[in-house]
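2.7 Reproducibility. Because tokenized structures are sensitive to small changes in the input, we list the exact sequence used for Esterase, including any N-terminal residues retained from the expression construct. No trimming or masking was applied before prediction.
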Amino acid sequence: MLSPASTRRLLSNAIGQTLVAARGPGWKFGLGPMILTDSSAAGQRQGAGSWSWCGLYGNHYWVDPVSAISLVAMTNTATTGAWGEFAESMVDAIYIRSGRTACGNCSG
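Resulting structure tokens (single pass, no recycling of outputs):
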């Protein structure tokens, strides 16, 4: 088990102002997963402080601790399941169903 201090460090921005080119603005790397630092800049429904990771063959997970919502998807669809339209449609469906319909640059 990790201590609360270790968990906070693991889930905190570890790269400063460095841009994560693969995801664009609003995303940073922690010592483990990617960290969403600015929902609006990233055009994401998840709240700032959410963390995620995806694998090349479509495995994807994210946790939004503020909204108490998380997702694990095992699609075996290469990059399609990890990011892009398919992955974003899963996020949209979950948040719209839960009543969180607004976000920075999202449609819908």
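The radius of gyration is 14 Å.
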